[in-house]
Amino acid sequence: MTEEYVLRCVLMLCCALLTANASNWLYLAKLSSVGSIRDEETCERLRGLIQRQVQICKRSVEVMDAVRRGAQLAIDECQFQFRSRRWNCSTLETMPVFGKIVTQGTREAAFVYAISAASVAFAVTRACSSGELEKCGCDHNVHGVSPEGFQWSGCSDNIAYGVAFSQSFVDVRERSKGQSPSRALMNLHNNEAGRKAILSHMRVECKCHGVSGSCEVKTCWKAMPPFRKVGNVIKEKFDGATEVEQREVGTTKVLMPRNSQFKPHTDEDLVYLEPSPDFCDYDPRTPGMLGTVGRQCNRTSKAIDGCELMCCGRGFQTQEVEVVDRCSCKFHWCCYVKCKQCRKMVEMHTCR
Ligand SMILES: *[C@@H]1O[C@H](CO)[C@@H](O)[C@H](O)[C@H]1NC(C)=O
Ligand SMILES: *[C@@H]1O[C@H](CO)[C@@H](O)[C@H](O)[C@H]1NC(C)=O
């Protein structure tokens, strides 16, 4: 072994440790080469899981496809919610999928943790309701006649199962050694806040039974909100996130607002430890830091999607581009709609 080789190994090991990241399991969304996760052997081959997650995988193999769908859901929702921000949640083909953006204790990391914890709870609960799992089904604690006089019936979403699974699978990294105590507190808080975004927006859906739609008998069940709603709630919490620091109260460590004039955060709020970078410039040393060159912006908006802020004062270019739209749609009896294709020129602005 040459010295250079040893040195390189040490460097690689350090890199591996530095990037050992609690959100690496999101990489499951990228493992399209792995088919359905059916057996314990597959659990060993899943990159991105830490040892204790591999154990959970082996114990609950049947749930893992739902976890993988959860990872994809989290990434898609993050990209939707951040579509007109400087950091737009773009993923890398390597781990961690969001690069170094989420390895610091920023607001963006807070969002990613919350949406990921929520997405696993959501996807697993969905799988329970759809009858695809042996370990769980509908929530049978919801039954009988409600105070409002309707009959609980149908499949109530078993959110308790999904939340418990998310707590064991997603939170496990924070409870293991090697994690900084303040980051662990931050991540755990935000994971829980993400799951609360589902729990506090559960709704009651009903169906009427009776002659020609009369509501003689009404049956209802508990349902999760659509995931878009969960994303909207967490995005609002991101906008109002609280900067915190770790303090000791007696012998326990807690997170308190850095600015003592602020009222303390609730269980549903997001918290972060460090201010975010400005995300303006591409930085080859920070994977995931793509900068905003080439990003589309809105010339008239004063918000973050406006050219002023999006382009960080570098200015923008304007192009005329042709867009094809459906137009002059006519309804034909019976029953289809026929449209023409219209071409029009619109201005598109992109950051220099
Ligand atoms: C995010 O922005 C980058 C440019 O910074 C662009 O290449 C990428 O397509 C965008 N991703 C999404 C998901 O919008
Ligand atoms: C640009 O921003 C303005 C003002 O916020 C808004 O009314 C308009 O719909 C935006 N345009 C596009 C194409 O998003």
UniProtKB/TrEMBL annotation:
Alphabetical list of PROSITE patterns matching this protein: WNT1 (PS00246)
GO molecular function, one term: cytokine activity
GO cellular component: extracellular space
Compartments where found: Secreted, Extracellular space, Extracellular matrix
Superkingdom as given in the UniProt entry: Eukaryota
Pfam families (alphabetical): wnt
Keyword hit for Secreted: yes
A biological process term (GO) from this entry: neuron differentiation
Gene3D superfamilies listed in its UniProt record: 3.30.2460.20
UniProt feature coiled coil, ranges: none
CDD domains listed in its UniProt record: Wnt_Wnt4 (cd19336)
Major subcellular location class: secreted
Similarity section: Belongs to the Wnt family.
Protein name: Protein Wnt
Organism: Cyclopterus lumpus (Lumpsucker)
